[in-house]
UniProtKB/TrEMBL annotation:
Domain AAA+ ATPase per the UniProt entry, residue ranges: 441-708
SMART domains in the record: AAA (SM00382)
Gene source species: OCS116 cluster bacterium
One matching Pfam family: P-loop_TraG
Protein name as catalogued: Conjugal transfer protein TrbE
Similarity comment text for this entry: Belongs to the TrbE/VirB4 family.
Keywords attached to this entry: ATP-binding, Nucleotide-binding
C-alpha cells in the first residue's frame, strides 16, 4: 500500500499550526476556525514631542475604541522593528550634489545600526456558534422566510464593525492605512519567515498556510526558524500602575524584534463573572480555616486578617465598578517579544537587551523554553488559542502597554513628486530620519532660528539635495553669500545685486520685451508701482500717460527700451522726476536701466541681496522684476525657491501682500517656497503672519537656548509648538540639530554632515569668498575639483572618476 501518513490530520509541519486559510474579501482573511481578520498599518504619537496631557488624552481615546469590543473579538498590536541597510539611490545632474550624496551614502552604510519600526493592528472576530443562533430563534419570533445568519451575513457584520473600529483608531493615531491583499500576505509572511520580500496574492487565494510558510520551524527549548535562532520573551507580571507609553524605550533599541500584544476581549457579563470569581477567591483567603472556626466557637470577629488578600478584594471590587460604569472593558492579555539571529551568541545578547529594557519599566519577564513554540504561535496575528495568559487587564492598561507610541522617522517617499524623500538624516534611537518639505502638494516651509545656529548650512544642503528630483530648479535669494559656494558648485549662476560699481553682470532691462502685449501690461503695473513708491498720487491721467509712453517705446529697437527712454517719452514733468532715481542719471539706474538684460535664468540661480538691502527704495522694484522673470521658469517642474532673511520680503506691507497671493499660485506651479529667517518675530509680526503660518505646513526650528524665555516662548507657541517641543529646541545642539514640525509628525534630527558636504554648505566666511574668487580667477573649467583641492580634500577628487555622467 501507499504510505498515506503524510495526509493524516496530525500536525507535523509549520503550516499545520498556522491559522490562516483564505482571502475572502479585500484585505480580509478567513481563518481555519471560522474567524475573520483584517489588518491596518499605523503609526502612534512620538513621545518625545508629546506632553503628558496629550498622552493621557490619546490613551483615553484609544481606550474608548478598545472598550467597544466584546466576546468573540481579539485585538493584535505588533511592532516590527527591522534593520535598514540600504541607502536610497538617486541620480543627480551636477557633480557637487552627487559627491555630497555619495558621502552621505557611505556614512550611512558604514554605520550598521539603523533601524525602523512598522506597526500593525489586526482585528479578529469569531462569529457565534450555530446553536447560539438557534437558541435565539426560540426566544424571538421571525418570519417564515427568514433563514437566519449565513456566512455572508457574518462577514458583512465583521466588515461594518471593523470599519467603525478602524475609523475610531484613525481619528486618534497620526497615521492608519488598511492593508490590501498583497500587503496583508506580505505582513503575514514576515511574521513566520526570515526571508523578507513582497508577496503577490495568488489568483485563487486559498491554502494561505501552505503558501506563506517557507521556513522550517524547529522546536525544543531553543527553537529555530529556518537557520535563525529564536528567543521569545513573555511578560508575566505588571507594575502596580501603568502610564501612557510605559514600554516606549523598546522603540529606541538598535536591534530587530517582533513585539506582539494580544488582547482577547470579553463582554460585560463575562468580565463581571470572571472578576466576581476573583473577588470571592480573595475574600475567602482573608481568613484561614482555623480563624473562621475560632470565630464560630467564640462568637468574636478575628482581629487579624490577610491584608494582601483584603486589598485585592477592594481591587477586584474597583475593577467591577469601572466595568459597571462602562469606563473600561476587560480581557486576557498576552505580550511577547521575539528576537532572532543566525549567531546564537548574538541572539542571546539581544535577549538580554530586551530583558533589561522591559524589566527597567517594572515588568517581570520569562525567557520561554518549554513553552517557546506555544508562545511564538500566540504572537502570530489571528492565533487566539496558544499561550493565553490568565490574568485579565483593563482596556486602559492595554492602551498603556501596547506598542502605540513610536519614533517618527519621516516619510520614506515624497508622495507629491512620487520620488524618494528630500534627504536622509539621523535621529535618536538608532532610527534614520527622512526629511520631506512637502505635506500633500504643499512644499512651502519656514526655517527659523538665531544667527549662528546653522540656518545657512541647512538651506544650502536642502538646495543641493533637491537636485535629486528630475528637471528640478533651485532659485535662492541670499544674504551674506552663504549659498554662494553651493550655487557655484552646482553649476549655477551667482548674481551680486547692488554689489557692482557700474553696470555689470547684475544689470537688468525690465522693458526689453514690452512689444509683447502681456509684458507691456506687466510693465505698466511695475512702472506705476515705482512712481507710487515715490509718493506720487497716480491719477487716471498719469496712468494714461505711462501707458502711452510704453506703447510708443515698444516700437523702438530693443536696446532702446530702457527706463531712460521711457522717461524721455513722458509728457509730465512729475512722472519724469519720479522715475529719475531709477534711470542712469539716478542712484539706482545701474541696476534697472541697462540696454541689455544680463539675466539668463538657468536651473540654479542665486541672488545676493546684502548690498541691495542697504538701499531700501531699490528692494521692491528689483525683487518684483526678478519675481516676474522667475515666473517664466515656473512651468510645472519641481522648483525650490529659497528666501533667506525673509524679513526683507515681509517688512514692506505691499510686498508682503504679494507674497500671500504668490504662495497660493506658486503651489499650483509646483514651486516650494522656503522662508529662512534669524528671528521668528519677523514672521510672527508680519501683516500676513496667519496666512504665512497656514501656508507653510512644514517648519524647521534651529536650536535656541533662549526659547524658554517668556517672550520667546510665546512666539514659539504661536507656531503651534507645545511646552515639550520648545524645551527640545532649547536643549538642541547648535549647528548640528534641527527640530522639524509638520502635520505628519515632529522630530529632532541631525544632518550628520561630512567634510565634503561642509565644504560646499558651510564655506561662507570672508576667507572662503576670497578662495572662491581665486578659484574662479584660475579658471580651468573644473570648479568642484579645484575648490576641493584648495580645501585640502584632494581625496574626494578620486570619486569624480566614477561620477555616472563621466562614464
Amino acid at each position: 500500500m501507499f504510505n498515506l501518513r503524510e495526509y493524516q490530520k496530525r500536525p507535523n509541519r509549520l503550516a499545520d499550526y498556522l491559522p490562516w486559510a483564505a482571502l475572502i474579501a479585500p484585505g480580509i482573511v478567513l481563518n481555519k476556525d471560522g474567524s475573520f481578520q483584517r489588518t491596518a498599518r499605523y503609526r502612534g504619537p512620538d513621545l518625545d514631542s508629546s506632553t503628558q496631557s496629550e498622552l493621557v488624552a490619546t490613551s483615553a481615546r484609544i481606550n474608548d475604541a478598545l472598550k467597544r469590543f466584546g466576546s468573540g473579538w481579539a485585538i493584535f498590536f505588533e511592532a516590527d522593528r527591522h534593520e535598514i541597510s540600504e541607502y536610497p539611490k538617486s541620480d543627480f545632474p551636477d557633480l557637487a550634489s552627487w559627491l555630497v550624496e555619495q558621502e552621505r551614502k557611505g556614512a550611512f552604510e558604514a554605520d550598521l545600526t539603523h533601524y525602523d519600526s512598522t506597526f500593525y493592528l489586526t482585528l479578529c472576530y469569531l462569529p457565534p456558534e450555530d446553536r447560539t443562533n438557534k437558541a435565539q430563534d426560540l426566544l424571538l419570533e421571525t418570519p417564515d422566510n427568514d433563514k437566519g445568519f449565513d456566512a455572508r451575513d457574518h462577514l458583512n457584520a465583521f466588515i461594518n464593525q471593523s470599519d467603525r473600529a478602524f475609523d475610531l483608531f484613525a481619528g486618534t493615531l497620526p497615521e492608519l492605512e488598511m492593508l490590501d491583499d498583497d500587503e496583508t500576505l506580505t505582513y503575514l509572511h514576515g511574521t513566520i519567515s526570515t526571508k523578507r520580500h513582497p508577496i503577490v496574492s495568488p489568483e485563487i487565494p486559498l491554502y494561505l498556510d501552505a503558501i506563506l510558510a517557507d521556513c522550517a520551524l524547529t522546536g525544543g527549548l531553543a527553537p529555530m526558524l529556518g537557520d535563525a535562532h529564536m528567543r521569545i520573551i513573555t511578560i508575566t507580571s505588571f507594575p502596580g500602575s501603568t502610564t501612557a507609553g510605559i514600554l516606549d524605550a523598546l522603540n529606541n533599541l538598535g536591534i530587530s524584534y517582533r513585539w506582539s500584544s494580544r488582547f482577547i476581549s470579553m463582554d460585560k457579563v463575562e468580565a463581571i463573572k470572571v472578576l466576581g470569581k476573583y473577588r470571592r477567591q480573595w475574600f475567602a483567603k482573608r481568613k484561614s480555616v482555623m480563624s473562621i472556626l475560632k470565630e464560630v466557637m467564640t462568637n468574636e470577629q478575628s482581629v487579624l486578617v490577610d491584608t494582601d488578600a483584603d486589598n485585592k478584594v477592594f481591587d477586584a471590587d474597583a475593577a467591577m465598578q469601572e466595568l459597571g460604569g462602562d469606563l473600561v472593558s476587560y480581557g486576557y492579555f498576552t505580550t511577547t517579544i521575539t528576537v532572532w539571529d543566525k549567531d546564537i551568541a548574538l541572539v542571546d545578547e539581544k535577549l538580554r537587551i530586551v530583558e533589561r529594557t522591559v524589566n527597567s519599566a517594572g515588568f517581570t519577564t520569562i525567557n520561554e523554553t518549554v513553552n517557546a513554540i506555544d508562545a511564538w504561535l500566540g504572537s502570530l496575528p489571528g492565533h487566539t488559542y496558544a499561550n493565553v495568559r490568565q490574568p485579565i487587564i483593563s482596556s486602559l492598561n492595554l492602551a498603556h502597554m501596547t506598542p502605540l507610541s513610536s519614533v517618527w522617522a519621516g516619510q520614506e517617499y515624497n508622495e507629491h513628486f512620487n520620488a524618494l524623500s528630500l534627504l536622509m538624516a539621523e535621529t535618536g534611537g538608532a532610527t534614520p530620519f527622512r526629511l520631506n518639505l512637502h505635506q500633500g502638494d504643499v512644499g512651502h516651509s519656514i526655517v527659523a532660528g538665531p544667527t549662528g545656529a546653522g540656518k545657512s548650512v541647512l538651506v544650502s544642503l536642502i538646495a543641493m539635495q533637491f537636485r535629486r528630483y528630475d528637471d528640478s530648479q533651485v532659485y535662492i535669494f541670499d544674504k551674506g553669500g552663504s549659498a554662494r559656494t553651493a550655487t557655484l558648485a552646482m553649476g549655477g549662476t551667482w548674481f551680486d545685486l547692488g554689489g557692482a560699481d557700474d553696470i555689470g553682470e547684475a544689470a537688468f532691462q525690465p522693458l526689453a520685451n514690452i512689444d509683447e502685449a502681456n509684458k507691456r501690461v506687466w510693465a505698466h503695473e511695475w512702472i506705476c508701482d515705482l512712481i507710487a513708491h515715490e509718493e506720487i498720487v497716480l491719477t487716471p491721467e498719469y496712468k494714461e500717460g505711462i501707458w502711452s509712453a510704453l506703447v510708443s517705446l515698444s516700437q523702438a529697437p530693443k536696446s532702446e527700451r530702457t527706463l531712460t527712454g521711457l522717461s524721455a517719452l513722458f509728457q509730465s514733468n512729475v512722472l519724469r522726476q519720479a522715475l529719475q532715481p531709477y534711470t542712469l542719471s539716478g542712484p539706482h539706474g545701474r541696476l534697472l536701466d541697462a540696454d541689455l538684460d544680463k539675466l539668463n535664468l538657468g536651473s540654479v540661480q542665486c541672488f545676493e541681496m546684502e548690498e541691495l538691502m542697504h538701499t531700501k527704495s531699490t528692494v521692491l522694484p528689483v525683487l518684483t522684476y526678478l519675481f516676474h522673470r522667475l515666473e517664466e521658469k515656473f512651468d510645472g517642474k519641481p522648483t525650490l525657491l529659497i528666501l533667506d532673511e525673509a524679513w526683507v520680503f515681509l517688512d514692506d506691507p505691499e510686498f508682503a501682500g504679494r507674497i500671500r497671493e504668490w504662495l497660493k499660485t506658486l503651489r499650483k506651479r509646483n514651486v516650494s517656497v522656503v522662508f529662512a529667517t534669524q528671528s521668528l518675530s519677523d514672521i510672527a509680526n508680519s501683516s500676513i503672519a496667519p496666512a504665512l503660518i497656514e501656508s507653510c505646513p512644514s517648519r524647521i526650528f534651529l536650536p535656541n537656548e533662549r526659547a524658554l524665555e517668556p517672550q520667546q516662548h510665546k512666539i514659539y507657541e504661536s507656531f503651534g509648538l507645545n511646552v515639550r517641543q520648545i524645551a527640545i529646541i532649547s536643549r538642541a545642539a547648535s549647528k548640528r540639530e534641527y527640530y522639524f514640525q509638520s502635520s505628519k509628525g515632529n522630530r529632532l534630527f541631525d544632518l550628520a554632515l561630512g567634510p565634503i558636504a561642509l565644504a560646499f554648505t558651510a564655506s561662507s566666511s570672508k576667507q572662503d569668498h576670497q578662495l572662491l574668487d581665486r578659484v574662479i580667477a584660475e579658471g580651468g573649467g573644473d570648479f568642484v575639483s579645484s575648490f576641493l583641492t584648495h580645501k585640502n580634500l584632494e581625496w574626494a577628487n578620486s570619486l569624480i572618476d566614477i561620477y555616472p555622467q563621466n562614464q
